[in-house]
Write a structure and sequence with these properties.
The complex is a heterodimer of chains A (251) and B (321).
Chain A: H1 4-20, H2 22-42, E1 48-49, E2 52-53, H3 54-74, H4 76-83, H5 88-91, H6 97-125, H7 132-159, H8 163-179, H9 192-200, H10 202-214, H11 222-249
Antiparallel strand pairs in A: 1-2
Helix pairs in contact in A: 1-6, 2-3, 2-6, 3-6, 3-7, 3-8, 3-10, 4-7, 6-7, 6-11, 7-10, 7-11, 10-11
Chain B: E1 3-12, E2 15-25, E3 30-34, H1 41-48, E4 56-61, E5 64-65, H2 70-76, E6 77-80, H3 92-102, H4 107-120, H5 136-148, E7 154-158, H6 166-183, E8 186-191, H7 194-200, E9 203-208, E10 211-216, H8 218-225, E11 228-233, H9 239-244, E12 248-253, E13 257-262, H10 265-276, E14 281-286, H11 289-297, H12 310-320
Classes of the chains: A mainly alpha (251), B alpha/beta (321).
Amino acid sequence: MIELGSIYGVWLREIKVYVREKERVISSFISPIIWLFVFGTGLGANISLQGVSYQVFIYPGILVMSLLFTSIFYGVYIIWDRKLDFLKDVLVAPISRTSLFIGKMLGGCTDVMIQTTILLFLGLLIGISITIQIFLYSLLVLFVISLAMVGFGLVLGSNLKTPEAFQLVANFVVWPVFLLSGALFPISNLPSWLSTFTLLNPLTYGVDAIRSAILGVQTFPTYVDFAVLIGFALIMILIGTISFGRMQQTK
Amino acid sequence: MIISTKNLTKNFKDLTAVDNVNLEIEEGEIFGLLGPNGAGKTTMISMLCTILRPSSGTAKVNGYDIIKQPDKVRSSIGIVFQEPSVDDLLTGRENLEIHALIYKVPSDIRKKRVEEVLNLVGLEKRADSLVKTYSGGMRRRLELARGLMHHPKILFLDEPTLGLDPQTREHIWNYIKKLAKEKRITIVLTTHYMEEADMLCDRIAIIDSGKIIVLDTSKKLKNKVGEDIVLIKMDNPDIAAFKKLKFVTSFEKKDDSIQITIKDSSKNLQRLLCKIGKIESVEVRPVTLNDVFIHYTGKEIRSEGEEGGYMERIMESQARR
């Protein structure tokens, strides 16, 4: 069951808290810039991959990387909210756990999308040519990826008890997911045992979709990319609903 | 009966926090669960609020079963938790508005409802300040207001004045009384403060180790123990002499003194003192709920909360942010 008003309420709370936590807003602005400078200049070698220079090839990967980190680590807020009892009033509300989870998820996605949009603009600075259509389509693709990844972060957050444990697990998860997504190198060059992992990684399809949106190169058909990402987001909602249900039973 | 429990039980690993409780609460009363820390009060309330699933037994709240119809129960109740749970990065008004959205208060009455509850707890002037600038008492009042936003039939208050200073505490009591009177809602509160239970509650259930020891009005509970307590210090008391006196209802020898309960101390104290001979000192005081508790359990309710008080929790939450 999905209650729109309640989802809006949960989302609104996330946004208001986000806007008032200055560190979070500042970090949304700063971290994309750092990503881009580190990779844009440090790796600006004259290598070319799939017909484009490495710097341009890697740009969608950086978009995805910054999105992935913000999305997954958003899950830690669920632990703080729970620790500080801000979540209590919401957990006893007469609404479905699914609405609650979706509200939190959309809150996280908004957070992530603000940062991603800035990064998309910065792309223009390093010479990526983006038309309005590509810009809007990229936003759509990135939003779908963020749904899947924020969902993943929230599932982790609602199943872990302390911020320290979350930090540990999230780091453990984020790097393999990122490195095996083809964000830094084309997956066609991988040995077959590694490419199995790559194919099982939902982010691979995200990277593929955004690369096709911006650079026009892609490995899988677009519908496969979207189906995998949306499917993964739905599975996260399902697991998240169960996790949120359990959460109120324990502490 | 607006709340009735049937063999309500909750076990945690090797501890029975709530043990086969059968309890009936009438509509419109202020009902108090009084007991020391760890007696099972919060566990009991958590089960009634559907936050915690009972190990066995069940309860009906506003006619709905807490296990089978938790959503219906939740729509009928408001809760003020023991821990501070308002968002301190939001203003008072925003906290209430978001609560209204999440609890599905219809949009046409939302604004009116917010004003109404703000007035009720006297926060209308500070409604647009961030909660982190509020005092402990103001936060508590905001939580009371939030608990009332969706017009619940029953309001649960878990240690409503834990860790607040005496003046603020009295303030909150007045608001709670006002709510009960103006809104005619049933209030169920837990407390380990005797005077709080005494001041507020129509009926009190004394709870210890997960069991309800005794349940009645404050006055009747005290009458069960006796009327006045006389503490006498003297050398070599003649115990037989005490036992002969008809107006002495109970008798207990403590370290270097004797504690007795007597009927109508204003009349009988004189007679008592005449009969027992030379004394060192005498002290007379009315029976309190603490005496009732000691009478039934043999131990005292610790008066101050050693567990984290409300203000400590606020400090903690702000330090973390």
